[in-house]
What we know:
mainly beta; single chain; 12-stranded antiparallel beta barrel
Amino acid sequence: xxxxxxxxxxxxxxxxxxxxxxxxxxxxxxxxxxxxxxxxxxxxxxxxxxxxxxxxxxxxxxxxxxxxxxxxxxxxxxxxxxxxxxxxxxxxxxxxxxxxxxxxxxxxxxxxxxxxxxxxxxxxxxxxxxxxxxxxxxxxxxxxxxxxxxxxxxxxxxxxxxxxxxxxxxxxxxxxxxxxxxxxxxxxxxxxxxxxxxxxxxxxxxxxxxxxxxxxxxxxxxxxxxxxxxxxxxxxxxxxxx
Length: 242
């Protein structure tokens, strides 16, 4: 617990207050029977061009139904509008791992169905279907790819399918740490994808590790790679297994 507090304090000292960009991740397909996990995430981004400095955070709880199915509930909020923390959305997720990786086949894959209920003035609610893939190699390398799709629902829903691609590559430095690079590419809507500069592309380093037998962390920075992306995005996750 001391290590968790120290990590959170270090990040807060560096980037608070700030404007969040993403609390999402390059999530993997693997499900373990009996898994019960809680997680806290914070994402921050320094002010740019005189804009406001704010923050965004989310909490998760997930539980496996068996070795192939897992549900998760996500609550996210920010201080975008009032400078005080307020609820943005509640999301329910159901993930199905239909392909397990093993020594003969390093590929694992899963589908995830999302239902997001958005607070009234924070946009439209949506339904999402996502496909996540992971390749674990014996030399310590791990590759991840996630394709996300979502459709807005409600009277003011926009046209087209919202599309995003996330990728990651990590190398295992030891039993307690991985170092890698992740990228996030928000492509826009299927009926109006636009050019690369108009889309939101970010890439940067990430480190994951263990603070104890049931506690882990993720810390990373994303840098804007297109004109429409923020210059810098700091992320910190803290995870506890029960």
